[in-house]
Amino acid sequence: MQMRLRPFLTMTALVLSAAALWPASSAQAQAASQGPSVAPTRASPPSTAASAARPAAVAPSTLERIRQTRTILVGYRDASVPFSYLDADKRPIGYSIELCERIVQNLRKEWRLPDLTINWVMVKSSERIPSLLDGKIDLECGNTTATAERRRQVDFSVPTFIAGGGVLVRADLGATTLTDLRGKKVVVTTGTTGEKIINRANETGRNLVPVRVGSNSDAFAALVARQADAWITDDILLAAFRAQHTSPKDFVLLDKRHTIEPLALMYRKDDVTFTREVDRELRALIQSGEVRRMYERWFLSPIAPKGINLEVPASRFLRETWGVPTKVDADTDVIFF
Length: 337
Hints:
Layout: E1 3-4, H1 12-15, H2 18-21, H3 26-34, H4 48-53, H5 62-69, E2 71-76, E3 79-80, E4 84-86, E5 92-93, H6 95-110, E6 117-122, H7 128-133, E7 139-145, H8 148-151, E8 154-156, E9 161-170, E10 185-189, H9 193-203, E11 209-213, H10 216-224, E12 230-234, H11 235-244, E13 251-253, E14 260-268, H12 272-288, H13 290-299, E15 308-309, H14 316-323
Parallel strand pairs: 1-15, 2-6, 2-7, 10-11, 10-12
Antiparallel strand pairs: 3-4, 4-5, 7-14, 8-14, 9-12, 9-13, 9-14
Helix pairs in contact: 6-12
């Protein structure tokens, strides 16, 4: 049975910091989006500076290891609907998963690796970056925000989605703002920007009581079980969990967005050749219009396993990103109250 959700993604907060996400000059942005023209048939040796900056776990480079083993290690999330989650047969599916599968498909073609296989590795929020740095995964395909803090350790693709930090509350609380939750228990998933929001809220005297859990599923379960009064994370995830519940009206997604969340695929820092291959395929998918068709499948159509339809049109900010696909290079860790 199809469940429907009224479009919810308001962009009021995002407008305030548009300059932080997009370049000031369209000419500069276009030049950045084109990237270098390099033949993909042979891996370029890493520069001395890049080799020095790269952790030991990354030697040899990602593509060198992939060519040797004929395997790519792809990290996924088990409950980040509709980006990365499990279907009824416990197989990874979702918008980010489909993007990563297309990247691997292109690697098979461009690097002449027809037998390249994907080894799927489930990672939790707190495990994403350590798994990359330790070489347990080569590419993370979930719903990770390209924050300035994270970019000091890892690298990100061009944005694949623009979300906002939202708050989902139990309807019986009657809350309309974060301030209304003073003294209430607010659940956050460890290792997410939701933690930053609740910490900053308490620094400004809102006196929220944090409840930290290990996964999105655990967070929503705590809200349902009344072990928490609210949940803070990406608004699209809040809407997805709400839509899948047997009684969505028991929960309310508050209007205010507290952060700008440019979501992107994540990989190791200073791995120049692999970075180029990932971004080149993503830009090709965007410029051909294929990403828009993928978006319609995952955000505007019924999706497995329960047939829910999130009915979330692409925001103006996401459409602008598609127009000029450019990496985030500014400090996006801005919190609004």
